[in-house]
């Protein structure tokens, strides 16, 4: 038997969702080539978390692409003049939205996938707990997949790219349960928008609150390391 | 009258086509925000040409995004172990193809457009003299535009992005004639895949040959500066 290796490019932020996606891709038998981005986000500790997760899961390789999106501005995650809100408003796209982020990340993953002859690209988008980002919806993913297959040499040759979104319809609690089943150590991951240099979470931002609720709902002890709040010390 | 400013993001490589696109966008009354990429291409002089063109045309601003695509490999334009061919084979996607390049460039242009509230993105793709790149075809552009409008806050709000490809159906000679009409100095542009540090062209690569033929067909003197070939000096 000469079955060829199943290769995948996996987008890894260092957060809970993308770490679970990586564990799932490995569980499905893919040789995983991991891609992370250093785009001037406040949370540089996310990248340290991504490296720790990639190492713990023994991936084939891990590339970090530096993108100087600070020049663009427009998001609380990259523009230090905008304050990260503690609670997002309902029904409004949050200020933590980074313009065209998933389009940019998927495009670069596509370029790498074409070079490596990987036909699967995994991304941890989620339509349930998705915080209102337009580029996390199934319609966006389907449109990107179509674009990818028109954009590339491989697509033109009929070897289709698939954008794999295994978390799309899962709740945070279901995601956590799946990661626990696969032996993932969530203590390595960082979800906080404003974690400190040691990777400790603020506990109050939108991302922290969603994550903490997920552990509660999954009935799993929360391994997140939180910053200590000292009052009138 | 309080007509709002028409803003556009214009992708500029420093080559003949994208310089013409920029001149056309300005002629159409757009306030132009120019975006170039430093992606480890051999032809760094392209970026110097882009700066010269942007300055000569008096654009609003010019951003250069650094992308370390060398790590990806897979193209003669970024991988120094692959030789640039003098003539591409017919009907074959050339080795100078950079994986997913226009998808990546358009994605970053989209991010910038969203921040600036520009609704037009100009790119100098061409289906006539397009050298066999899949991401220069109308079907690709249409798919990307659809993706852009699903990906973004603006698209969701019904303010559509348009990918403008004014060169799509023009021959190289027609492009040159249009640029000349708009007063563009093509001596500032560099199209060569292996120009020297002073921006002088090799005269033999696929891009040089297409460009030289364009000037001949347009009946316009070729302002390109070529490298001198010395034999048995």
Description of the structure:
2 copies of one chain form a homodimer. Chain A is an alpha/beta fold and 233 residues long. Chain A has one domain (7-218): Rossmann fold. Chain A contains 7 helices and 5 strands; from the N terminus they run βαβαβαβααβαα. Chain A has helices at residues 16-27, 45-56, 101-116, 138-151, 153-156, 172-181, 206-218; strands spanning 7-11, 31-38, 61-66, 120-122, 162-164. The first copy, chain A, has a 5-stranded parallel beta sheet with strand order 3-2-1-4-5, with helices on both faces. In chain A, β2, α2 and β3 (61-66) form a beta-alpha-beta unit. In chain A, α6 packs across α7. Chain A is globular. At the A-B interface, β3, α3, α4 and α5 of A face β3, α3, α4 and α5 of B.
